[in-house]
Design a protein that fits this description.
Aspartate Aminotransferase, domain 1; Aspartate Aminotransferase, domain 2; 3 domains; seven-stranded mixed sheet; four-stranded antiparallel sheet; 15 strands; 15% strand; EC 2.9.1.1; selenium; transferase; L-seryl-tRNA(Sec) selenium transferase; protein biosynthesis
């Protein structure tokens, strides 16, 4: 006789069976009940939709094993390592900057042992967590003082709230940027309690526009580095030195939201002239804010560097407590900053900079080695092709980085299904789809990740 809805057991009846009762002991009552409700609910829906599902043997060990497997799947972490084969080095969706081993080691130390996070070892009194990186930042940027918060948006918010709350901020219309996640600079200014005063036009703003906008209510001239887009053609903007001179003459603060921020000149590596923080401060900018987890190559952080008196205001502001950097990120940032000192070589020791500056011959060789591995497992549609990689995360938006990729396809699978299957691999492999193939860009893939990619394809091909 075919099963019916009446043959579905009650949850309590299932819990009373020995194999299921054992699961309650191994896991928890709530987890087991949740999975059982899901199983019974799916069978009930099948009956109601007119299907005639085969009922499992609810008393069997195989059914209990199925329940246990679902519980284990639910317990698995959702945040997992992936292989970034997109060619986007600082990929926001994939966690941005990879940390150097020294930074990871510093985080582990801070996580597993007590530390002098806010203890002055010389005096035995309470110290400041900012002291652990302030001297390093000042050394590397030439700033008088520095402070670090949990991200760059918080750095902008704190800086404006401490210096311009209830007063006006003058900014060019061409620099009212939107960053990832639809966070817009005008909204951050409004949240700080300051009043935005826009000047100039989208493509042209002159020093006279800034000068005409300054009045008794003005606190800050805000310059924003357009790191995630470019306006080309009929454009104009005042030089930083012009703005600095104006700000000094009119007794207002010149602040720059640099966004990404670099500590070294990247032009020798074929990259555009991204402004170096030290050079910006030399022009007379009073305060510069920039990210720790982009081109700097460290953890998520918002770094604020500049005049000592302004930084002191920020340190004393009540918002600082809410946006301060945590101890793990602080440890990683300190370790990353130390890699900019001799005898270290940042372009060698910091993963982001190493990928940006990698030799094209090295990348091509890695592509050919992966292609050989894939052909070795029987894949026919494999080709090494020239590619274009990018810095990512709004950094160097118009700079193409020459690269090489392995283009792949399977005869009985669409590229969309192949891309999805690679994302389900362990570890997941994230590529991009172009020209009807899955492209795996080797600028962002490490040598020791090649066997994992080949193994993923072998598992997919075997299905």
């Amino acid at each position: 006789m075919a099963p019916t809805l009446k043959d579905l057991p009650q949850i309590q009846a299932l819990l009373d069976r020995p194999a299921i009762a054992d699961l309650v002991t191994r896991y928890s009552h709530g987890e087991v009940v949740e999975v059982l409700r899901g199983v019974i609910g799916a069978l009930r829906l099948a009956f109601l939709s007119g299907d005639m599902p085969d009922l499992p043997d609810f008393a069997s060990t195989s059914f209990a094993a199925r329940v246990a497997k679902q519980i284990e799947a639910g317990r698995a972490p959702s945040l997992v390592p992936v292989i970034n084969a997109t060619g986007i080095i600082i990929h926001t969706n994939l966690g941005r900057a990879l940390l150097a081993p020294q930074a990871v080691e510093a985080m582990q130390m801070a996580a597993t042992a007590p530390s002098n996070l806010e203890l002055d070892l010389a005096t035995g009194k309470r110290g400041s967590r900012h002291a652990h990186v302030e001297r390093l930042i000042c050394e590397l940027t030439g700033a008088e003082a520095a402070v670090v918060v949990n991200n760059c948006a918080a750095a902008v918010l704190l800086s404006l709230m401490a210096t311009a709350q209830g007063r006006s901020v003058v900014a060019s219309r061409g620099e009212l940027i939107e960053i990832g996640g639809s966070f817009r600079l005008p909204d951050v200014i409004a949240q700080s309690g300051a009043v935005l005063r826009e000047v100039g036009a989208t493509n042209k703003t002159r020093i006279g526009d800034y000068a005409a906008a300054i009045d008794d209510s003005t606190a800050v001239l805000l310059k924003s580095h357009t790191s995630n887009y470019r306006i080309v053609g009929f454009t104009a903007a005042p030089e930083r030195r012009e703005l600095a001179k104006l700000a000094q003459e009119r007794d207002v603060i010149l602040m720059e939201d640099l966004g990404s921020g670099v500590l070294i000149d990247l032009s020798p590596y074929g990259l555009p002239d991204e402004p170096v923080v030290r050079d910006i401060l030399k022009t007379g900018v009073d305060l510069v804010v920039f990210s720790g987890d982009k081109l700097l190559g460290g953890p998520q952080a918002g770094i604020i560097a500049g005049r000592r008196d302004i930084v002191a205001q920020l340190k004393a502001h009540p918002l600082m407590r809410a946006v301060r950097i945590d101890k793990l990120s602080l440890a990683a940032l300190g370790a990353t900053l130390r890699l900019y000192r001799a005898p270290f070589e940042p372009v060698r020791d910091i993963p982001v900079l190493a990928m940006l500056s990698a030799a094209l011959e090295e990348i091509e060789g890695r592509a050919h080695r992966l292609a050989q591995m894939l052909r070795g497992i029987g894949m026919a549609q494999v080709e090494v092709t020239e590619s274009v990689a990018y810095a990512g995360a709004g950094s160097l938006p118009d700079q193409d980085l020459p690269s090489f990729a392995v283009a792949t396809a399977l005869p009985d699978m669409t590229v969309e299904l192949l891309g999805a299957a690679l994302r389900r691999a362990t570890p997941p492999v994230i590529g991009r789809i172009a020209q009807g193939k899955v492209m795996l860009d080797m600028r962002t893939v490490a040598e020791d990740e090649l066997p994992h990619i080949a193994r993923a394809f072998a598992q997919i091909s075997a299905v």
